[in-house]
Amino acid sequence: MRILIAGGAGFVGSHLCERLLEEGHVVICMDNLLTSRRSNIETLIDRPGFEFMDADIVKELPPCPRLDRVYHLASPASPPAYCRYPIETLRANSEGTRNLLDLAARDGALFLYTSSSEVYGDPLQHPQHEEYRGNVSPTGPRSMYDEAKRYGEAITAAYSSSHRVSARIVRVFNTYGPGSDPADGRMIPNFITQALRGGSMTVYGDGSQTRSVCYVADIVAGLVLAMEVEEAEGKVFNLGNPEERTVLEYAKVIRRTVGSDSRLIFVDQAVGDDPRRRRPDIARARNLLGWEPRVSLSEGLSSTIAYFRGALNGDGRL
Ligand code: UDP
Predict the structure, then answer these.
(1) Residue of 180, 186, 193, 200 to test ligand 1 pocket, by largest number of atoms within 8 Å of CB
(2) What's the gap in Å between 217 CA and the centre of ligand 1?
């Protein structure tokens, strides 16, 4: 098959490119490298079947050959990144989604939109089931991302229900693994790089807020299933690991796994409206896709720490 991955140079996107290339598909990676990194696709660039298009999905798309599948993962995704690029984030998920849906419609290609657990905002229902409508401020500090993703879902649902495109939506929860940007400001990359350097580890607030983190290979497996399983058409799926821990627990387990004596400091640095609790209900993905996370936190952290260790220079700079 010929598969377009918009945002293919991003963290999750580059793992998806690799997996689909390994399956023998032709993979076109379209990315504007705004918050993603060329280094993520360096090992793919010379592989047969891989093509990189340096293009912005909100503009007129470059000529594309006939496609069988379109994955949309093109958006800033870490809180510091989408706060730095609020308009770009809104446009990538609105105009960008529309452009990619039209491209899929042109070829009758299957379409997958990657949404986010952020559509639930600071959830009042726990764990979050796909039917939960969320607790989101349309003008709050995270609104450029939360509302962008909600719009992205709405336009994808509209193309799907009007039978223009065979589409599915995946709400990706917190994801970690090798290849994530050590400087994107997220919890796991921050804690690992801080522990490796032996400096202070910055726990935001009192660290009692919770997250459920999923290893990237598990997320990629779920994305492929959501695209390929017939019953997934027109549906929304949570993908994430339902094992919930506090932020403070993540800091401690990472410090122990790295073997670091870093000090934990509590700072008031969270991006506003920091959700208090987050944990996916994955019953739908389990039942319809036969999917569930397989990689344990200790296995996942070991390979992620090994990646960050390699990315750190001898002097502790990245
Ligand atoms: N966090 C933290 N220290 C950091 C970075 C993040 O305590 O150095 C917290 C953040 O406040 C949030 C959680 O870790 O409660 C997850 O943050 P992340 O940026 O990874 O993503 P989010 O889930 O907020 O989108």
Answers:
(1) 186
(2) 21
317 pLDDT higher than 60: no
On whether both 29 and 158 belong to a single domain, the answer is yes
Ligand 1 centroid from CA 249, angstroms: 12
CATH number at residue 272: 3.90.25.10
Q: Are residues 95 and 194 in the same domain?
A: no
| Domain shared by 19 and 166, yes or no | yes
Active site residue 145: yes
Averaged pLDDT, 168-180: 97
Same domain, 56 and 198: no
Could you tell me how far CA 234 lies from the centroid of its own chain?
20
Q: Would the pLDDT of 318 be above 80?
A: no
Which pLDDT score, from 0 to 100, does residue 50 have? 98
**Domain containing residue 149: CATH number:** 3.40.50.720
318 falls within a domain: no
Nearest residue by C-alpha to atom 21 in ligand 1: 186
187 Cβ inside 6 Å of ligand 1 = yes
Among protein residues, the one with the nearest Cα to ligand 1's atom 25 is 79
* pLDDT tens track for 111-126: 999 999 999 999 999 9
Residue 141 lies in a domain: yes
Residue 283 lies in a domain: no
Provide the pLDDT for residue 31.
Answer: 98
Rounded to two decimals, what is the model's pTM? 0.97
Tell me what the mean pLDDT of segment 59-86 comes to: 97
Q: How far does residue 82's CA lie from ligand 1's centre (Å)?
A: 14
Residue 159 structural domain: 2-175+215-239
**By alpha-carbon position, which residue is closest to atom 3 of ligand 1?**
203
* Active-site position among 113, 120, 145, 176: 145
Q: Is the pLDDT of residue 85 over 80?
A: yes
On whether both 6 and 99 belong to a single domain, the answer is: yes
- Given a cut of 80, is residue 40 above it in pLDDT? yes
